[in-house]
Amino acid sequence: MNRHIQPWQRLLVLAIGSMVFAVFAPTIVQAANTPTLESLSETTIKLQISIDTTWVLLSGFLVFFMQTGFAMLEAGLVRQRSVVNTLLENFIDAAVTVLAWWAVGFGIAFGTSAGGLFGIDTFFLNQLPGADGSYPLGAPGSTAAINTYTLFFFQFAFAATASTITTGSMAGRTDFIGDLIYSAIMGAISYPIIVHWAWNSNGWLGKLSYHDFAGGSIVHTVGGWTALVGAYLLGPRPDRPPWGKLPPAHNLALATLGTMILWFGWYGFNPGSTLGTANPGLIGLVTINTTLAAGAGALTALIFLYVRTGKWDLVYCLNGSLAGLVAITAPCAYVAPWASVLIGFTGGISVVLGVSLIESLHIDDPVGAFSVHGISGMMGTLSIGFLGQAELTLNQKAGLFLGGGFDLLGIQMLGIVAITVFTVAFAFLMYGGLKAVGYLRVNAEADSIGIDAYEHGASVWPDIYPVEEVSKLQDQTKISENKTLEEQ
Fold it and tell me: Torsion angle of alpha carbons 35, 39, 41, 42, nearest 10°?
C-alpha cells in the first residue's frame, strides 16, 4: 500500500542530500583535472576553427547555389530554341570545373608560389590527416584558419562562377564540346593564375596590397572579359533583330527567379569571404554594403531606362541589381555604407550604357554578361581607390576622394590593367585554338533548326515546340541542301 508522503518528509530528504553534496563535492572537484591557461587556449582555438569551418561551408553552399541562379537567369533571357543547351552548359560547367580545380587549379591558385605568378604544388588535393587525426589547415598560399578541404570547396564555388559567366554571353551558338574544353581550361589555368596573383599570400598583386575582398575583379572581371572575347569570336546568333534591339527574353519569370537566387547567394559570396567569424562586425558591414548596392543598382537601372524609353523594364531592373552586386563585391569590406549606395548607383547606370556599347560594337551578348560582370567588376574594384576608408583598407590608406591621395588608386588601376591584359590575351588564345579546330561555333545546321534540336534532340517546351517537328524541319533542310547541290 502506498502511503502519502508528507511535506516535512520531502524537506528532510532535501536537507540530507544537501549535506552529503556539501561534504563530498570539493573532493570530487579536486579529483578532476584542473584547467590551465594552455588547455583553455587550445579549447578556444579548436572551437573557433569549428565555428569558422561551419561558417565557410554554409557560405560555400550558398555560392554553389548561385549556379542555379545563373541557369534560371540565362534560360529565361535566351530564346526558346537554346534553353536546353543553356541549362545543360550551366549544369555541366560545375562538374567540369570541380575536376579541373581539384587536379590543377587549386594548386596553381594556392600552392607554393613561383615568383608570385603561380603555384607549383598542392595538386590533386592529396593532403591527409596526420598521425593524431588532425587535418591540415589552409594551403601554402593561404593563412585561413580552416582545413584544406573546406578552403578547397569554398574556392571551387568561386571558380565555377567565373566559368558560368561565360555561358550566358556565348549562349545559343557554342559547340558543346568546345564548352566542355574551355570550362576545363578556365578552371585549371586562366582563373587560378589570377587568384594566385591577388589572393595567394605570396602573389605579386597581393604583396602590393591590391584590394579585392570577394572577387569583383578576380572572379567577375575575368569571367566578363573571357565571355566578351568568346562572343566576339563566335559572331551573332542567327536571325537576331537589328543591332541595338535585343531578341525578346524567352521567360521573364525564370529570369526573375534566377536573379533573386543570385542575390540570395551573394550573401555567401561576400560575407563568406571573411573566411571566419572572428570579426562579426565586419560580417555585418559586408552584408549591409552588399544589400544596399543591390538595391541602388536595381532602382537606378529601372529609373534610368524609364527616362530613356518611357517603359519600366524588368530585364534592366534585374541586371541593375546584379551590376550593383558585382560592383560592391571587391569593395564590400573597405567602404562605408553610404559609399556602397553610390557604387550601386554607378553600377545601375553603367550596365545600361554597357549594353548599348556592346550592341554598337556588333557583339552579341544575350544576357549582358560583360556589362554586368566585366564593367561593374572593374568599376567596383577601382572604387576602392576613390572611396576606401583608411580604417578598413589593408594598408590603412584612404581613397582619393577621402584625402588618401593616389597610392591606393594606383595599385587598383595596376591590378585591373594586368588582369584585363592577361585575361583577354589568354581568351583569344584559348578560343582561337578552339575555332581553328572547329570546336568553337556549333555546326551551321544548328542555326537553321535551333541548337537544342541539333545538339540535344530536345525542346524545353515539347508540347509547344515538339522535337518531332524539329526533326521534320531538319529533314526538309537536308533535302533542300541536296537539291541545291544537284542544281550546282
Answer: -150
pLDDT of residue 7: 61
Instruction: List the chain domain ranges.
Output: 64-442, 448-483
pTM (predicted TM-score): 0.87
Q: Which three cell numbers stand for residue 228?
A: 566578351
**What is the Cα–Cα distance from 204 to 197, expressed in whole angstroms?**
5
Name residue 174's beta-bridge partners. 441
**Fold of the CATH domain 64-442:** Ammonium transporter fold (1.10.3430)
- Window from 95-104, 147-156, 212-221, 465-474 with minimum mean pLDDT: 465-474
